[in-house]
């Protein structure tokens, strides 16, 4: 059983059915937070929680597609009805389309990535603002999941990279707009964490010089601990941007 926090704290993690989202939502739950796991695939989350020990009121499983504004609004309504407040949103859900040269990018692939990575992140942030401004005490923290691609693209990554650059603008503007309401908004840019999405990196991935080379990856625990540390900060402090990456990955000097 987790050690309860001195004061109950409430978190929402999007994209919580796999990868970084699942790992961070689980870590928050183990740290004593009340956690809402949001994803399109809820059966995976239900099975995960069956094997964990926690108080029944500590976890919510919310089925929603963040690209659908109405479903996002309903999910936040469920949080408000169940807990009455939200202290931390990890705006994590996203998709990474298959690499393609610009002339080969299909309109539906572009639109899907923008709908999820950008529009969906905005819908979640917007609803979090609404709840955090209305609750007492007012305020909370929002952490957007950017990417190394928010700084430098990989070959063939135009769709994903564009959405992650847009995420940086979302973070900066929201951090400014949140000041008056004690809402701290920041961004974590993650590079090469070991997960299903990055399996190909260990075998070999296309580099800017046209070669294919394996890339170093870091353990998921490094990411979850960073997110937990940011979530635990007092609202008087904000990590506006942080980058956590595999030490030996080709990011600095990429290209």
Describe, in plain words, how this protein is organized in 3D.
It is a single chain. The model has no long low-confidence stretch (mean pLDDT 92). It contains seven helices and nine strands. The strands form two sheets. A seven-stranded parallel sheet has the order 3-2-1-4-5-6-9, sandwiched between helices. A two-stranded antiparallel sheet has the order 7-8. It has one domain (10-245): NAD(P)-binding Rossmann-like Domain (Rossmann fold, 3-Layer(aba) Sandwich), CATH 3.40.50.720. By secondary structure, it is α/β, with parallel strands linked by helices. The protein starts with 9 loop residues before the first strand and ends in a 10-residue tail after the last strand. Helix 4 (107-134) runs parallel beside helix 5 (158-178).
Short description:
The protein has 255 residues and is of the alpha/beta class. It contains seven helices and nine strands, in the order βαβαβαβαβαβαββαβ.
Count of all domains? 1
- Based on the structure given, which CATH architecture is correct? 3-Layer(aba) Sandwich
Largest β-sheet summary: 7 strands, parallel
Number of strands: 9
Strand content: 15-25%
Strands side by side in the biggest sheet: 3-2-1-4-5-6-9
User: What is the chain-wise order of helices and strands?
Assistant: EHEHEHEHEHEHEEHE
Determine and state the CATH class: Alpha Beta
Supply Rg.
18 Å
Instruction: Point out poorly predicted stretches.
Output: none
Percent of residues in helices: 25-40%
Q: Any idea what the shape is? A: globular
**What is the averaged pLDDT score?**
92
């Amino acid at each position: 059983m987790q050690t309860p926090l001195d004061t109950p704290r409430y978190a929402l993690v999007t994209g919580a059915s796999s990868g970084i989202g699942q790992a961070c939502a689980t870590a928050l739950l183990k740290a004593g937070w009340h956690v809402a796991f949001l994803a399109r695939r809820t059966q995976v989350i239900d099975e995960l929680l069956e094997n964990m020990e926690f108080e029944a009121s500590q976890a919510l499983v919310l089925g929603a597609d963040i690209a659908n504004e109405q479903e996002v609004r309903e999910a936040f309504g469920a949080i408000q009805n169940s807990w009455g407040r939200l202290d931390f949103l990890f705006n994590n859900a996203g998709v990474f389309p298959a690499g393609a040269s610009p002339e080969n990018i299909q309109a539906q692939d572009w639109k899907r990535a923008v709908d999820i990575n950008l529009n969906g992140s905005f819908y979640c942030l917007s609803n979090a603002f609404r709840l955090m401004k209305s609750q007492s005490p007012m305020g909370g923290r929002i952490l957007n999941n950017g990417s190394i691609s928010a700084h430098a693209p990989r070959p063939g990554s135009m769709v994903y990279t564009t959405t992650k650059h847009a995420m940086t603008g979302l973070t900066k503007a929201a951090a400014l707009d949140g000041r008056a309401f004690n809402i701290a908004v920041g961004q974590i840019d993650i590079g090469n964490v070991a997960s299903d999405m990055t399996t190909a990196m260990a075998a070999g991935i296309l580099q800017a010089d046209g070669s294919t080379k394996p890339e170093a990856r870091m353990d998921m625990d490094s990411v979850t601990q960073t997110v937990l540390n940011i979530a635990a900060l007092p609202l008087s402090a904000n990590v506006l941007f942080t980058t956590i990456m595999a030490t030996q990955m080709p990011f600095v000097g990429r290209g």
